[in-house]
Amino acid sequence: MNTRNTARGPSRTAPSRCINKELVLFALACFLMAGCAEARSRESKKLIEFDTGRTIEMKVGNTVLVELPGNPSTGYSWEVISIDNSVIQKTGDVKFTTNSNVIGSPGKVALRFKVVGAGKATLKLGYMRVWEKGVAPVRTFLVDVIAVK
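Above: the chain's sequence. Below: its structure in token form.
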């Protein structure tokens, strides 16, 4: 042990530096673990066309990304037909991506939803032309969401 004799008695400088380093490392570890736990509580689940008919369980605060095939140049778009907004809500705009530079090429349409409350909700989407009233969607996507706290 490193000690010095002074008028007040021996001093232990080296151990106090170690304690400070240990406290800093402990605080850093706690901070990192809390960040990882927070990230897990905001997980996202991606659903695709083949997930239709499934039941998924999600935590409140998590997001659901639904990615479906589409082609806006045909006039068709994926629209929410039914949703329980007390459990799950649509967030943001619909995003369309294509791997081709050719105008009118098909691609993927992404819709994002956030789980906002506990309960069970059915999310139903339809691929339709919104101006065609009374016409059934040409395709539908349906998923049951069980939201837990």
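The longest strand covers residues 88-97.
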